[in-house]
Amino acid sequence: MFKGSIPALVTPMRDDGTIDFAAWDALLDFHLREGTDGVVVGGTTGESPVLDRSELEELVRRAKARVGGRMPVIAGSGTNSTAKSVALSQAAEAAGADALLVVTPYYNRPTQEGLFRHFTAIADAVGVPVILYNVPGRTACDMLADTVVRLSHHPRIVGVKEATGDVARSEAILRQARPGFIVLSGDDPTAAELIRVGAKGVISVTANVAARAMHDLCAAGLEGRHGEAAAINERLIPLHKALFVEANPIPVKWAVHRMGLIGTGIRLPLTPLSPGLHATVEAAMVAAGLTLD
Asked: Apex CA 156: angle with CA 153 and CA 161, to 5°?
């Protein structure tokens, strides 16, 4: 169910920071047309730290209604508080999420035992699948492979988004986790290589912009056409890099705006892409084969 190209969707906002739900519907339609295999709502790229619970619930409800079962809707429901994560996860489930993407607790730096208990508490409290999310470069909290393997035995913890870019680490998880446990890349540049060694796809920033190309990359890799997947990835490397010239999701929101899909809104403390970087991101979009107005 959770495989292929799964963009961590940007959250469309007006200039005053309010959510543009009409643009949200149009964005979902775009991904349906482009072959996207699933969507993450309210993840890091969707500005999760500045969304309130009611906004996440409405985004999930509208996504679920719009895609009509044609792709899974995964809700980002992790915080650095176990109790708050449980409540947010239950709310996202009630709003219709097919699964939950739960990031490691940021800032408070728990032990590996603390991580095990945190994720177990969340998975015990819901009835939908839970995907772990490890992104130590952003959270200052690294969930080690042994902890992921241990958590893989929980019946509702179905996989991990591994965003370290460390292919060997993901290989270790795949070897040791329970049968059927999935690994999804959280690092666009290494996604094709991770699929080659057994991952089922990518939860992607780049797929917000190059949706069809990322779908094709994943499809090729999952079908064993690894040379083709690598060639697509090579073409996308400048875009992968350009989408991180400032903190995510600043560049990707500008790029999706440049495609005419959303407005320019973004919430503080993030600010719009620096004007001096517009040409860099645009050139990478053109190099990736995207047609701009």
From this structure: 85
Please say if the pLDDT value at position 288 is more than 90.
yes
Q: By three-state DSSP, how is residue 40 classified?
A: strand
Is CATH 3.20.20.70 what the domain over 4-225 is classified as, yes or no?
Answer: yes
Instruction: Give the C-alpha separation, 184 to 12, whole Å.
Output: 25
Give yes or no: 161 in active site: yes
Residue 126: HSE in the Cβ half-sphere, 13 Å Cα cutoff: 33
Q: Write out pLDDT tens, residues 168-227.
A: 999 999 999 999 999 999 999 999 999 999 999 999 999 999 999 999 999 999 999 999
Is it the case that residue 62 has pLDDT exceeding 90? yes
- With beta carbons less than 8 A apart as the criterion, state whether 200 and 183 touch: yes
User: For the chain, which residues make up each domain, given as ranges?
Assistant: 4-225
Alpha helices in 38-165 (DSSP H): 53-67, 82-95, 112-125, 136-139, 145-151
Q: For residue 200, indicate whether it is catalytic.
A: no
Please state the φ and ψ torsions of residue 24, each to the nearest 5 degrees.
-60, -45
Q: Per the residue annotation, which of 3, 64, 161, 253 is the catalytic one?
A: 161
Closest CA to 244 of 204, 192, 195, 293: 204
Q: Is the peptide bond before 49 cis (omega within 30 degrees of 0)?
A: no
Host H or E run for residue 276: none
- What would the two tokens of residue 248 be? 């995510």
pTM beyond cutoff 0.70: yes
Which residue's structure tokens are 């991904």? 31
Distance (Å, rounded) from C-alpha 119 to C-alpha 9? 23
Q: CA-to-CA distance for 176 and 167, rounded, in angstroms?
A: 14
Which residue in the list 64, 133, 200, 253 is annotated as catalytic? Answer: 133
